[in-house]
Write a structure and sequence with these properties.
Elements: H1 2-36, H2 42-51, H3 53-81, H4 86-106, H5 108-118, H6 128-155, H7 157-166, H8 172-194, H9 198-201, H10 203-207, H11 209-224
Length: 233
């Protein structure tokens, strides 16, 4: 009984961390960019950032928090899913953690933007149009960095989904969705890289749905249902 309670507690801690990843991820990857960044309009984007510096700072902090949570998430999942298949559990942890330092390095682009907006002494005689161009350049570099991060955001979902589908305490359908989500991330990466204006086609949002449903569903299941202990001899 004590082992079962320990497993339930472990599952709920993992679910709570996962919830932190999801909430900060939605805020930093979707909500704030939708409020501040206007594609192909450098001037308005710069004005939005300059007039909403607090929101921009929250963008930076929430992104760093998201990947700080994500550093610990696979470690708790490893403890929970190691009995299913230890090799897949190790691969899951490796692929997940690789994305963390890449994101932290990529976040430097946002700090550079903040410096350009608030520190007039760093302009070094550049005109406002040149400063705006630099801001958009750093934003584009940040987006390119995220695409590299998302390679591993997708790859870790395959061993994770396999472990979920083979476990006896998580629904198999969630594992299938997670594995499909892996391919969705990779397809979107290839599409954004090879096809100009790929985001305007509209297919990328549909391809990402399995990952979204799989991750949110797994998070909620861990939080609400927990995990039963698997009997061993």
């Amino acid at each position: 009984m004590s082992t079962e309670l320990s497993n339930k507690k472990l599952a709920r801690i993992a679910g709570l961390i996962y919830l932190g990843v999801i909430l900060t991820g939605i805020f930093s990857l979707m909500y704030v960019p939708s409020k501040l960044v206007i594609s192909n309009n450098v001037s308005i984007t710069y004005q939005n950032i300059a007039s909403s510096q607090s929101l921009f700072r929250l963008w930076i902090v929430s992104g760093l928090l998201c990947y700080a949570f994500f550093l610990f998430l696979p470690l708790f999942l490893y403890k929970l899913l190691k009995p299913v298949n230890e090799n897949y559990a190790k691969l899951m942890v490796l692929l997940a953690i690789i994305s963390v330092p890449i994101f932290f390095l990529n976040a430097q682009n946002l700090f550079n933007i903040l410096s350009l907006v608030i520190d007039t002494n760093s302009h070094n005689g550049f005109s406002i149009e040149q400063i705006q161009s630099h801001v958009m350049l750093y934003l584009n570099q940040y987006e390119n960095g995220l695409r590299i991060v998302h390679i591993f955001s997708g790859l870790w979902l395959f061993p994770f989904g396999y472990l979920v589908s083979k476990s006896d305490f998580l629904p198999k359908i969630l594992g299938v969705l997670l594995m499909l989500g892996c391919f969705g991330y990779l397809i979107n990466f290839v599409g954004h890289t090879l096809i100009p204006n790929y985001s305007k086609i509209g297919i990328s949002s549909y391809i990402s749905l399995p990952a979204s449903f799989g991750e949110i569903g797994t998070c909620l299941w861990l939080l609400i249902m927990g995990a039963k202990d698997k009997k061993t001899t």
